[in-house]
Design a protein that fits this description.
single chain, alpha/beta, 7-stranded mixed sheet, two-stranded antiparallel ribbon, 11 helices
Amino acid sequence: MAVFYDFDKTYGAAYYDIAESQYGIKDGRIKDPSRYYFFHEILLGLLRRQIDADSALLDIGCGAGILAEVTHDKVKKYTGIDISQERIRQAEERIKFDNCSFEVQDAQHLTFCDSSFDIAVAIEVIEHVPDTDSFLRGINRVLVKGGTLIVSTPTNLFFKNKLEDLYKDQHIYEFSIPRLKSILAESGFSIKLVMGIGFKSPRIVIPVWLGSDIIKYFYKRIKNVKLNAGYGHPISLEFNVVSNRVLNKMYFARRWKSLAVALMKILGFFGSHFPLISSNMVIVCQK
C-alpha cells in the first residue's frame, strides 16, 4: 500500500496534486469550482466548526497538510499521519507552524499512546483502508474518553467490496450510510451527526441487451475518445455535482457563473438534508 501511494503514476503521490484533486484548488487558484465549493468551503468549514479550541487533533491520511492550514490557529496540537513518505515530505516542506508535526504511519497500526488525542479526522480515507476494524479500533484507542471522530467518505446507496478494483480507482470499499454507522457503532462510537456533502443521483446500469454497446459506439464516434470499458460491458450512468464538467464550464464562463453557483447551492442543500443522495457523507461520532 505504501509503495502504491508513493509511486503509482495515476493516483499516487508521484503524480497527483492533492490540493487540486481533493479540494479543487491549485497554486491559490480555483481549478475545479464544484469540488472547491463542496470540499474546501463546505467540508473544511464543517470540520473547523466541530473542532474545539486548544484540542489535540490527529489528521489521518493528512496528505500535503491542507487541514493543518485551516486548523493550526485553533488547535493546541496538530499531528498529521500518512502512509506515503512522499506526502509527508510535501507536508513538512509546506507547513511550518510550531504546533504542527507530521509522520509516516499506517492508519491500521497506530503507534501513539492511549488517549493521546481529543479529536481524530479521516477525510476520504476509510474507503482506502483494507482492514476497517483495525483502523477504527486504533482510532478509538488513541482518543480520550468523549473524544470526537469525524469521517468523510463517498456515499453509496449500497455497501460494496471493491478489493479487486483497487488499482482502477483506489477505493477498496464503498459504504452506505447505514452500513458505515453500524461499523462505527461496533467499534465503540456513538453517532452525533450525519451530513451530506454535494448531490449524487442513484447509479443507473444499462446492460448490454438494452443497448449499452450502441450508446458506447456513438459516444466514442462523437467524442473521439478511447473507451475505459470496451464493448460487452454495461454502462453506469450517474449524475454527481462534485467535479461536474458542465457546472465547472458554466462557472468559468462569466455570464453563467452566478447560475452555476446557485445550482451548486440548491443541489447541495438537498444533499445536506438527505444524505442518502449526497456525493459524500460526513459522520461525526464520539467515543
